Amino acid sequence: MKRSMVLFLTVSFLLGCSSSDDVRKADYVGKTFDHRFFDTLQECLDAQPDPNFFINCHQQLSFIDLETAEISLTDIIYRVDYSVFGNRVTLRSGPNTLEFQQDIVFERISDSSLRRISDNSVWYERNGDDIWE
User: Fold this and answer.
1) Does domain 19-125 have CATH number 1.10.20?
2) Are 109 and 115 in contact (CB under 8 A)?
3) Bridge partners (DSSP) listed for residue 123
4) CB atoms within 10 A of CB 22
5) Residue 1: its pLDDT value, please?
6) Where are the domains of the chain?
7) Count of CA atoms in the C-beta half-sphere (13 A) of 127
8) Using an 8 Å Cβ cutoff, are 79 and 68 in contact?
C-alpha cells in the first residue's frame, strides 16, 4: 500500500509539472506580431518607387506552435525554432536563415508588444488579418 501511494504521488507530481518555458511559450502560440514601416496603407502605397516593384511595408513574426515560429524581415518567410527565457524570446538562426546569421532576440514589453533588441523596434500584436487595423 505504501509503495502504491509513493508511486501515485510521484506520477501525479511528474504529470502535474510543466516547464515554465512551455507555459510562457503557450502565451505566444497563434499570435502574430508586426513591425510596420508606415502608419497607414496609403503611406505605404505612396512610398512605392515603381508600379512594377513593391517594397515591404512591414516585418512579421508568427508563433506557430511551442517550438516553431515564422519571421519575415523582407519578402522571405523563415521557419525557425525559438525559445523563451524570462521576458526574452530568442529566434534561432541556422544555415537557411540567409537574412540573419545570428539569433534574433526580442524582449516582451507587454502582452501585446515585443521589442527587438538589436534595433529597438517595437512589434505589436496583430488583431485580425489586416496589419493596418
Assistant:
1) no
2) yes
3) 114
4) 11
5) 53
6) 19-125
7) 4
8) yes
Q: Are 78 and 68 in contact (CB under 8 A)?
A: no
> Residue 133 belongs to what H/E stretch?
none
Grid cell digits, residue 16: 502535474
Q: Encode the chain (133 residues) as per-residue pLDDT tens digits.
A: 555 444 444 434 433 444 455 658 899 999 999 999 999 999 999 999 887 888 899 999 999 999 999 999 988 999 999 999 999 999 999 888 888 889 999 999 999 999 999 999 999 999 988 888 7
111 contact partners, CB below 8 Å, separation of at least 6: 27, 125
* Phi, psi (rounded to 5 degrees) for 58: -160, 170
Tell me, what's the pLDDT at 88? 96
Write out the E strands in the chain.
32-36, 58-63, 68-72, 77-85, 88-91, 104-110, 113-116, 122-125
Quote the distance between the C-alpha of residue 100 and its chain's center. 15
For the purposes of burial, counting CB atoms within 10 Å of the CB of 31, is it exposed (0-12), middle (13-18) or buried (19 or more)? middle
Cell of 114: 515585443
